[in-house]
Amino acid sequence: MFEKHTAHRTKGTYRLLIIDGHSSYVTLEFDLFCKEHSIITLCMPPHSSHLLQPLDVGCFSVLKRLYGRQIKTLIRNGVNHIDKQDFLKAYYTARTETMNQSNIQSSFAAIGVVPYDPERVLSKLNTQLRTPTPPPLPLPALDQGPWIPETPHNTAQLELQSKAIKDYIKRRTRSPPSPTDLALNQLVKGCQMAMNSAVLLAEENRQLRAENERQKKKKAKKRSYIATGGTLTVQEGLDLSRIANEGLQSRVATQEATVQTRAPRTCSLCRSQSHTARTCPTKQVSN
Fold first, then answer.
1. pLDDT, tens digit, for every residue of 251-266?
2. 3-class SS of residue 43
3. How many Cα atoms sit within 13 Å of 101 on the Cβ side?
4. Is residue 64 domain-shared with residue 107, that is, in the same domain?
5. pLDDT tens digits, residue range 108-164?
6. CA dihedral over 206, 208, 214, 219, signed as positive or negative
7. What's the predicted TM-score (pTM) here?
8. Structural domain boundaries enclosing 66
9. Is residue 137 a part of any domain in this protein?
């Protein structure tokens, strides 16, 4: 692949190929091929690909993390077996979000190749003592105006409501924090936890319903083969699967639209519909 895509773009006599030094590359055939095509190989130091390989830094690691997140979502929704269709969908989603121009360019910039900056890697090899940056000071509280009693519907409204109550109590008592303040703080924390749990449960319920509906549709489909040989890309597989599913749905709709009716009763001797075999004239004549 390297020879095919770089032969027409060579500047000068030699080309440089950087590899990770894996034992599968160090073969006599590989060395002879590089010598015949004027390719100079440069092996990276061991255990350094996470610092020196562009795609390993900014693409493959992100792809692995996003794919794992897709699988964890399926497992959390009750899917314990990942078949080929689940794998294609999860991998295609993760790859689409990862393999784009901005991520690839950021990967080459992260290791100091383009733009050229060796310090991006060298700075990670030594541990330097740095003075921690102090946290930013909190912004001054804004005047929320007079307190209007109302029922809070989310954590933000609950925070404003509790602050207004605390300010109201403080203006009336003009004293240090009292047991009332402590009880109010605990009540606010409990309400915040309940609201956050409700939001998480609603999202989990939505994901479970969506996954359950998807599993029902997948079980209703008949198994069909979308390819018999050769190579198949992810997009081609998804397109062929979609076309097969559309054809299956159209056949099912046609079968449902066809009303099955019972055939009329006929005589088994003369095939006439006006009588049966017991009263058939043909039988009486023969007798």
1. 766 665 665 667 777 8
2. strand
3. 0
4. yes
5. 888 888 888 888 888 877 654 455 565 554 444 444 455 565 677 777 777 777 777
6. negative
7. 0.42
8. 49-123
9. no
